[in-house]
Amino acid sequence: MSQILKYTIKVVSVFFILTFLIAPNNSFAQDGEALFKANCASCHKPDAKYVGPPLKGAREREPEKGWVYKWVRNPITMVQSDPYAKKLHEEYGSIMTPFPDWTDEEIDAVLDWADAYVAPGAGGDGGGGAAAAAPKSDNTILYGLLTLVLAIVALILLQVNSSLRRMADESEGIPGKKPVPFYRNKAFLLLFTIVAFIFAGYFLVEGAVGLGRQQGYQPEQPIFYSHEVHAGVNQISCLYCHGGAQDGKHANIPSVNVCMNCHISVTEYTGDPIYREDGTEVDANAEIKKLYQYAGYNPDTKTYDESKAKPIEWIRIHNLPDHVYFNHSQHVRVGQVACQTCHGEVQKMDEVKQFASLSMGWCINCHRTTNVQFNDDKGNGNQFYSIYEKFHEDIKNNKYDSVTVEQIGGTDCAKCHY
Ligand code: HEC
Ligand code: HEC
Ligand code: HEC
Ligand code: HEC
Ligand code: HEC
Ligand code: HEC
Prior knowledge:
The chain is 48% helix and 1% strand. It has 19 helices and 2 strands.
């Protein structure tokens, strides 16, 4: 038995050493990475499509040398005048935030970092864009495989050990015990039990913790209201309808009279046909009529009948448990996180689908890696953090170049839990 214990200890320590070796330690290209995370990560991924194109290789694609510098400083004018920018914009739809006072060096730092970027745990899918929804740690699979390999190695070692011992015994003339078949080998049984226990426990806990989560949830709404038509094709700002996201805890769903601001005049749908997930075509005009019924509006006489009006019972999609505190303005206004980072490309969805898992790990991972937008000299960013003078001083003195949400306490339990 003590033999087995020794082996177990050995295996476990080898496992930990390997874990530390593999754990990410990319001190490389600090600068570019920090700049990227603070400014570009809400819309770009280094190696995959996101709200904007992958940044890897951007300078190889540019139509002329120096194009990217002009672009990053002034995308809005470029989109109107430059043919390549126009083409990009047609493909991606959203418009990039300008960074007018960025130097060529800063832009190069970000792009150098992106060019050198290798996805953690390389391989995997990577591309796919929409499919890359779950930011679940890819390491799980890596560690799982590692455990399996180590378990096999341990088994082989045990086997070799017992053979060696038998050979030694035989050469010394001690009668060897009859070899035990592997399924009656105590070491094997112990190892098997441990592995089974870990796996069962893992799935049980994952399942229990995941109760009530609903990533990908896409209910059928009372009116087939398409975000693609409104926020995509017709470029209506998210904040026109979800203004609460800027100023308050809730983003809010617009009431019927917000819809009627436009639909008094937009009485018919003339755009491209819209299809449901199952491929059937949506009768958009009938959907607009439903809106009129909810509003108690008669498009022929152009009058409202208050007594017939009733609120639209939209089905709620995102829903955190009651014990979690989440505030939109903290993220949208102060943190300057784009809606799409958390909700996916809503402007390309006909019906909204839950993009993120809304798990605690999802919140925490982002807080670990996202930098705080401090108040800059121009009065942008978060004035509140003037109380964190120390951070400012340390940044000035180049002790570090950015501060993550975690460092300001964004992973304290009480920040998110009532
Ligand atoms: C608000 C979202 C947003 C942010 C923030 C953003 N971008 Fe973009 N970027 C886009 C979009 C969208 C496009 C595609 C063009 C379009 O649709 O206007 C783009 C295009 C680009 C391109 C052209 C890529 C190519 O394939 O030629 C470069 C380079 C670029 N961005 C660099 C940056 C850098 C560097 C930052 C950070 C300093 C940044 N972007 C921040 C949205 C954004
Ligand atoms: C013209 C109004 C309007 C605009 C513009 C609009 N939305 Fe919406 N949004 C709605 C309505 C109505 C619903 C509820 C029905 C539904 O879920 O489709 C909704 C639902 C949502 C939901 C799901 C809410 C839930 O139940 O959890 C998200 C997320 C969302 N919108 C994000 C966005 C984003 C991001 C944009 C900008 C790209 C945007 N919306 C633009 C009207 C609008
Ligand atoms: C940091 C991530 C994050 C960002 C950024 C974000 N949201 Fe949300 N959003 C959430 C979460 C989490 C919920 C669920 C809130 C709940 O259940 O209390 C949510 C819920 C919503 C809802 C449902 C109604 C509500 O208020 O609970 C709408 C609509 C919505 N978001 C729209 C937007 C829009 C529009 C933007 C951009 C202006 C945006 N969100 C930016 C994470 C985010
Ligand atoms: C800022 C103006 C504006 C607002 C606000 C607005 N719409 Fe629309 N809506 C439009 C436009 C523009 C079209 C497309 C017309 C076309 O392409 O011919 C449209 C199309 C539609 C359609 C047909 C296409 C589809 O999405 O199925 C429906 C239904 C609709 N709107 C419902 C709503 C509802 C419900 C609201 C409120 C939550 C709303 N609209 C708010 C401007 C608006
Ligand atoms: C995409 C990245 C991202 C995700 C996902 C995210 N956050 Fe945040 N969060 C931020 C940023 C950035 C800030 C910093 C805002 C600031 O400058 O104060 C922040 C700040 C906060 C704060 C205030 C912390 C403080 O110290 O003042 C709370 C509370 C919070 N987030 C809760 C949540 C919860 C709950 C979730 C998950 C449902 C979540 N966040 C998901 C980026 C994110
Ligand atoms: C950045 C925000 C955030 C912070 C910080 C945070 N949590 Fe959570 N926590 C969440 C969210 C979101 C959920 C809901 C997850 C879900 O619905 O699956 C959650 C769920 C939980 C649950 C229920 C089990 C589960 O996973 O669903 C427990 C227990 C919990 N948190 C404990 C803690 C403790 C202890 C801390 C401090 C070490 C902490 N949390 C810090 C966001 C946070």
